[in-house]
Amino acid sequence: MANALDPHAAIATVATGETDGTLRTADGKPLARALARSQTRARRRAFLLVLPLLAFIMLTFVVPIGQMLQRSFYNDGFSAHMPQLSQWFADHPRGTDPDDAAWAALAADLSAAAEARTIGIVGTRINYDVPGTRSLFTSTGRKARGGIEPPYREALLEMNDDWASPRLWSAMREASTPLTTNFYLASLDRTRNDAGEIVQVQERQRVYVMLFMRTFWLSLLITALTFILGFPIAHLLATLPMRRSNLLMILVLLPFWTSLLVRTTSWMVLLQQQGVINDILVWLGLIGNGQRLQMIYNQTGTIIAMTHILLPFMILPLYSVMRTINPSYVRAARSLGATSWTAFRRVYFPQTLPGLGAGALLVFILAVGYYITPALVGGSSGQLISNMIAMHMTDTLNWSMAAALASLLLAAVLILYWLYDRLVGIDNLKLG
Amino acid sequence: MAVPTYASPLERAWHYAYLVICGLIFFFLIAPIVVIIPLSFNAEPYFTFTDRMLEFDPDGYSMRWYDSLLTFGMQRPDAPRDLGWWADAWANAKWVNAAKNSIIIGFFSTILATALGTLAALGLSRPEMPFRRAIMAILISPMIVPLIITATGMFFFYSNPCSVLGWVGLPSNCGRLAGTYVGVILAHATLGIPFVIITVTATLVGFDQSLNRAAASLGANPRTTFFRITMPLILPGVISGALFAFVTSFDEVVAVLFIAGPDQQTIPRQMWNGIREQISPAILAVATLLVVFSIALLTTVELLRRRSERIRGVTPH
């Protein structure tokens, strides 16, 4: 192993055959080529060590993320089960009114889908774009199972006159190809009108942009709070003698090692209206028994619990940077006449910036994607975008929508991650 | 840190104020974890200190919530506590089953993550590793990408892992990993790997490569060199990495919610159910046990870190 690693081994003996002026190894090969070969071999060996894990991560992590991305813009729920109508849409440009052939194709596809029991999938797909249409498909499907008699248009309209709705036909046209941007549009509170133009959804349905904004705003606030609370602690730990700082470090590391659910539970216990903090405030006479504070199941709960949970991620990088700052710089500044505030502001603080950057980015990245804590202590005003993703995954089963929201969040996180790698370097990520 | 002798009275005052502020922040960090410990011994089903607890009346305290951890889900919880009762608890109690599942899943995912992660860390810390930065970024990403996104992706992938083969025209259906132990173990291994990579590469930073060359020059083959020279030196780092991976698995609930079936109920999953449905002080009893568990883990990691520093202290840099 070591021989292959060490290019110097190849020239252990001085080159002998100096007939053409090139340096050669002991066994007569040109030195440059032997060196290149040995380096290639070393590179290959190093890579082979990493390969099993890389393959594992590719399969269990990168591929699943890829599948999720694919779902966000690919949904064949309509096109796969309504082939004739999808073909009609492909043959006729937007703006064409549905003719007899279109109605015939719709009727044939509906009966076929009802026979194959896929009508629910089709209805669900259209329902994503035009809410309330799933039952239109399933109820028509029940009646159409035996086939529909011509004239198709009149027959279908008799079953339900919603079939004439231009909004419905526009949505079916959108869905007739599996590739769609509609889920991304919906993630940004946009939709398409009857003519297929992108418009904002009605005011009371605009939730996602607001949730994205809230997620980023709360994450920013939590990052700022962890900085305010983490900076003095990190400074104290970095300046105390090793023995005492190690002891105090336990107080930082214990929360870090304690289960997330345990910490969230503790905050639920502490913050609730009949909980410890309200009891103490009442006992101290600061508030009356009737005016106990509502500190949980709202944004306050999310902010307090997440600040507590993410605080160690700010303290640890700050601490490791502060530890390396030479105290004589501040003393030199003082001796040159700076006040302690100036010395801190102009000399000490700038040196802590790398740790501050690392900690802030890490806390922000983690906060943006938090799910468990807001779900448990956030109520409705403390919900973040990840709670919406979970809701679409488990309750509404609109997986494409969940995938689109997750993709947007992922894009944001990856940009921050890239920034972190550029500014701090992945190698400098330390734990504990 | 003491106040320097040249400090003005104002600076002196600020210094003590600063110490008080630090004390308050430490209190903020640790109090929520400490407070649940006495509350878990509450005799009443409340989440606050009762008057009797504050008077240190022994009747205010009880072990009933710890007892309920054993009896919850048992077939005959009121039977006399003989061997049959314990067998019933072992087989049927929900929290006992959750603990068993957590340990099984944690154990196997840790083994997998540690083995693959250590191997990769060895490769990554060689100077000649190609595309080092990019590969490292990919391998760390499961820690950075929000769990909800990872779990969403895994939900699609694990319900039909062979759908990928469909892209290249192969048969695309071969059963599912969702709802199986293997699925959860693979998912948890993925999430634990970044921690192993980070701790082991950090240990290898101070590793003297000439020790390997010395072993080779004395006739040891690569395998002997690894097991006799490298491994003992990086072992503390490997064990801390493994503990991190285990804790990650032991504390993980989102992936479990998305891909585990009813047979893979883990402790966090059971807690999640308990908190969402009917929160009772039994949750605090579990939480207390978990805090004790994390104290044990923290102590182990701290001891290992000191040992690692001591070993590396004698190694020339």
TrEMBL record, chain A:
Pfam families assigned to the protein according to its UniProt record, in alphabetical order: BPD_transp_1 (PF00528)
GO biological process: transmembrane transport
InterPro entries found in the cross-reference section: MetI-like, MetI-like_sf
Subcellular location as annotated: Cell membrane
Principal cellular location given in the protein's record: membrane
All residue ranges annotated as the ABC transmembrane type-1 domain in the record: 212-420
CDD domains cross-referenced by the UniProt entry: TM_PBP2 (cd06261)
Membrane topology: Multi-pass membrane protein
Signal sequence extent: none
Annotated transmembrane regions: 46-66, 216-238, 245-262, 303-321, 355-377, 397-420
GO CC annotations, alphabetized: plasma membrane
Keywords: Cell membrane, Membrane, Transmembrane, Transmembrane helix, Transport
Record-stated family: Belongs to the binding-protein-dependent transport system permease family. CysTW subfamily.
PANTHER family: ABC TRANSPORTER PERMEASE PROTEIN, INNER MEMBRANE ABC TRANSPORTER PERMEASE PROTEIN YDCU-RELATED-RELATED
Name listed for the protein in its UniProt record: ABC transporter permease
TrEMBL record, chain B:
The keyword Transmembrane helix appears for this protein: yes
Entry-linked Gene3D superfamilies: MetI-like
Pfam families with a match to the protein in the record: BPD_transp_1
Keywords: Cell inner membrane, Cell membrane, Membrane, Transmembrane, Transmembrane helix, Transport
TM stretches of this protein: 16-41, 103-122, 134-158, 178-207, 233-259, 279-304
Domain ABC transmembrane type-1: 99-301
SUPFAM superfamilies to which the protein is assigned, alphabetical: MetI-like (SSF161098)
GO biological process per UniProt: transmembrane transport
PROSITE patterns according to UniProt: ABC_TM1 (PS50928)
Annotated GO CC locations: plasma membrane
Membrane-protein topology: Multi-pass membrane protein
Keyword flag Flavoprotein: no
Source species, domain of life: Bacteria
Compartment(s) of residence: Cell inner membrane; Cell membrane
Family listed: Belongs to the binding-protein-dependent transport system permease family.
Record-given protein name: ABC transporter permease
Organism: Paracoccus amoyensis
